[in-house]
Specification:
The complex is a heterodimer of chains A (318) and B (276). Chain A is mainly alpha-helical. Chain A contains 13 helices and four strands. Classes of the chains: A mainly alpha (318), B mainly alpha (276). Chain A: It comes from Ruegeria atlantica.
Chain lengths: 318, 276
């Protein structure tokens, strides 16, 4: 550049600038054109309805479903208290708290269960030679895409009284009466773990995918025991994967509808069923909307916590 | 036996550290856990008997019965209609969004745009379902428009992020040099896209379309709440039948649905591997 004797005339320079500005404008226009449909449809029909739900949660239920446009925070009061129809007094009612409690209990147990089952699998796959990994990844991903309803139904075929497990055990003669498994918390838990296990395996695998296993050898050479190698090398490496997996399992498990519906027999309600019920035969849309928003708030908190847990990887083990 | 004893002895072999023999066994057990229930369902859908436990004879009678069932045929048609339309729209939208979020220089709001596209994945489906129902019930009243369009719209929204993922992955793996070369040869933006980017991107687009199709075809919760009367999709029909009790016809339909899903996902997997 320095060797160029010719210095552009002022008008040439400004024309260059104008051309650049024009190009930048055009790029912005193209970008806007490309983004508009996606952001538009998800913004209007994905994000905006959440604020409608927020509005609904502060209205009164309509007699035949829907809402009456009268302000009321009854939907939130209803969580903890029952309003007497005759004298309008409030008495403490823990029924809904219990449903929330059961949902959290089940979702967190599911998370731990999938971690215990999923971690070894993720590690095992990452330690395979490349050509075997593809088979395993395919095998783990496939159930994830298979219809959740059908998978839950197949679980039901296995655990019901006259199901596969019971009849097989009875045929061998291990038991004489079927063990009641269906419609228990255990069945729901098994169904949830079964449904969401791939969500745990895949992110942990992703965090181990590029891992150099000779580091383990290095640790071992430095007289680290097996446990130490595990704690100080493998856990820090997989930490973002574990955090992502926990969230990916926790979110759908908390909002599960099909699993408790089929395997819990609609008696062992979880939040998901409670919400759907209010929009169906319960005919209390505001209460359903309030329950959904509380669920979403919890999910957002879980997301933030996991972001921090995943990010603090660098800090801990310096 | 050598393997078993190595579990208790402090390992000396580096390969041992890598392998964690206990994990191998667990992995196969997990695979069994994932596939055994589906296998039972599939195998016994070919059972002549009504039972899902006692095998009598191979038979296709439940498949014949399912295919002759008008309710099943009608709901399958609706499912395919909704899934195909939602797939078409969501794939186009996702392709455009992927181009805007991976090509060109980084701009303010790019990661926010990406996050918004993925928003349907971040929220429990039941929440999306009731929020959509609430919003649509207002829109239905205001506009007076009814019909299956609403259901297709709801499906399109949650299909977008699924179509977006493989398209974006493919696009960020693609070098920009071809597009730069086309631009050097005075190709317009549209020509560059039509003759350079799109053909290279096609495996990603196909993979995205297939995932969107599968996700739409399988949806239960959002459809259950948003669908109007007479808009029963196949999964909703199946759910209704299961609530009433186990029937062999449902086993047959479920097996068909599993078959379709597996075929599509296998194809997607193949398409995505080809890029390497």
């Amino acid at each position: 550049m320095a060797g160029v004797a010719h210095i552009p005339q002022p008008d040439a320079a400004s024309r260059l600038l104008a051309a650049q500005a024009e190009r930048a404008r055009q790029r912005r226009r193209t970008r806007l054109f490309l983004l508009a449909p996606g952001l538009g449809i998800i913004g209007i029909f994905g994000l905006f309805p959440l604020s409608i739900a927020l509005v609904y949660s502060f209205l009164e239920p309509g007699t035949y479903g829907g809402v009456e446009w009268t302000f009321s925070y009854d939907a939130y009061v209803q969580f903890l208290f029952e309003r007497d129809i005759f004298d309008d007094t409030l008495t403490f009612n823990s029924a809904y708290l219990q449903i929330f409690g059961r949902s959290f209990g089940l979702a967190i147990t599911t998370m731990i269960g999938t971690l215990i089952l999923g971690f070894p699998v993720a590690y095992f796959i990452a330690a395979r030679p490349q050509e075997q990994r593809n088979f395993w990844l395919f095998a783990i991903t496939l159930p994830f895409w298979t219809n959740l309803l059908i998978r839950t139904y197949s679980m039901l075929l296995i655990v019901r009284d006259e199901g596969f497990v019971n009849l097989t055990l009875m045929n061998i003669g291990l038991i004489s009466e079927p063990i009641e498994m269906l419609y228990t918390d255990g069945a729901v838990l098994a169904g949830l773990v079964y449904s969401y296990l791939p969500f745990m395996i895949l992110p942990i695998y992703a965090s181990l995918e590029k891992f150099d296993f000779s580091l383990l050898e290095a640790g071992h050479d430095l007289y680290a025991t097996r446990t130490q190698v595990f704690r100080h090398i493998i856990i820090p490496i997989t930490r973002p994967g574990i955090a992502a997996g926990c969230v990916l399992v926790l979110i759908p498990a908390l909002g599960a509808y099909i699993t408790p519906e089929l395997l819990g027999g609609g008696k062992k309600l979880m939040i998901g069923n409670l919400i759907a019920l209010q929009f169906g035969s319960g005919r209390n849309w505001p209460f359903g909307a309030a329950a959904a928003l509380i669920l979403m708030a919890v999910v957002l908190i879980a997301l933030l916590v996991s972001l921090r847990a995943g990010a603090s990887k660098e800090g801990g083990h310096g | 036996m050598a393997k078993l004893s190595s579990l208790f002895r402090p390992s000396t072999d580096a390969r041992e550290l890598r392998r964690q023999p206990l994990f191998t066994g667990m992995s196969w057990l997990v695979l069994l856990f994932l596939y055994a229930p589906i296998a039972v369902l599939v195998v016994f859908s070919f059972n002549d008997n009504r039972s899902v436990v006692r095998w009598t004879e191979f038979s296709l009678r439940w498949y014949t019965a399912a295919l002759e069932n008008d309710d099943i045929r009608r709901s399958a048609m609706i499912s395919v209609q909704v899934a195909l339309t939602a797939t078409m729209f969501s794939t186009i939208i996702a392709t455009m969004a992927a181009l805007a979020t991976t090509r060109g220089s980084v701009y303010r709001g790019r990661s926010a745009a990406t996050a918004l596209i993925n928003q349907p994945l971040m929220i429990p489906e039941i929440v999306t379902a009731i929020a959509t129902l609430a919003f649509f019930s207002i829109l239905r009243q205001l506009t007076g428009v009814t019909g299956i369009g609403w259901l297709i719209l709801a499906h399109t929204v949650f299909c977008v992020p699924f179509a977006y993922m493989p398209i974006r992955a493919r696009l960020s793996d693609m070098s920009v040099t071809y597009e730069a070369a086309a631009a050097d040869l005075y190709a317009t933006n549209w020509q560059t896209f039509r003759y350079v980017t799109l053909p290279l991107l096609m495996p990603g687009v196909m993979a995205g379309a297939m995932l969107a199709f599968v996700v739409s075809l399988d949806d239960v919760i959002i459809t259950l709440l948003v669908a109007g009367p007479g808009e029963t999709t196949l999964p909703i029909y199946i759910l209704g039948q299961i609530r009433r009790g186990v029937t062999p016809e449902v086993n047959a339909v479920s097996t068909i649905l599993i078959g379709v899903t597996i075929a599509m996902v296998a194809l997607t997997f193949f398409l995505q591997r080809k890029r390497k």
